[in-house]
Amino acid sequence: MSDFNAKKVLVLGGSRGIGAAIVRRFANEGAAVTFTYAGSKDAADALATEASATAIRSDAADRDSVIAVVRDQGALDVLVVNAGTLIIGDPLELDADAVDRMIDVNVRAPYHAAVEAARHMPEGGRIIVIGSVNGDRMPFAGGAAYALTKSALQGMSRGLARDFGAKGITVNVIQPGPTATDMNPEDGPMSDFMHSFMAIKRHGRPEEIAGLAAYLAGPEAGYTTGALHTIDGGFGA
Ligand code: NDP
């Protein structure tokens, strides 16, 4: 497959999990891929070698760093904002600074990255943000702040789709359900509960999410924008 031959792709948060699968997918299809990471230098270096990609250390909680990384890429064909963190717990007990940091990474970074990317993107550019089915449905206690961050991406993408539509740039949200990564291992404590109400009673694979990202970035998706694309095994059905 070579839909992305010579295309320039930036994945924010690409060293592990869903982001790493997205890096591999675009690299395997011929793209020149750059990705960021915050802490996992060894994983980032290994993936960069494996996928012939470029790894840049940049904390998504640092707005200026996010904007600088995107700006330095120049005319990107595809921006994927995947970096995200998950804090679950009693809102009466959660550390306020930790909650605000999650909001910085999960909401402020996608907004500023998307806007900066659109300044330089050519006609037909693609902006893809990784949200969550929890933007639509939060079926357990303790997830209010995380759900807040993911539902914020819904409004952001609808609005930016209209802002950038005239330039032929599409803006879409992928909303995964439980996906087997370090953040949400398939043998984790919540898995049986989540599988109990899902139609497909397993975690998704990062490669399944990457496949949807490739579709949204590809030539058949030029008419798809401002939309939420849920891929969740029926978690939210
Ligand atoms: P992981 O924790 O497995 O991986 C997160 C990735 O994002 C890593 O590459 C990590 O880099 C990077 N990252 C995290 N924080 C930062 C930061 N401050 N700056 C730069 N990079 C950062 O998570 P997943 O792969 O599971 O999740 C990816 C996205 O998918 C997130 O937005 C998450 O909310 C969303 N999602 C995940 C679901 C799941 O069940 N797994 C379900 C629904 C949505 P580093 O290695 O350096 O820390």
TrEMBL record:
Protein name (record): SDR family oxidoreductase
Domain Ketoreductase residues, every copy: 7-209
Pfam families: adh_short_C2
Gene3D superfamilies: NAD(P)-binding Rossmann-like Domain (3.40.50.720)
Family statement drawn from the similarity comment of this UniProt entry: Belongs to the short-chain dehydrogenases/reductases (SDR) family.
TM annotation in the entry: none
InterPro entries reported for this sequence: KR_dom, NAD(P)-bd_dom_sf, SDR_fam
NCBIfam families recorded: PRK12742.1 (NF009383)
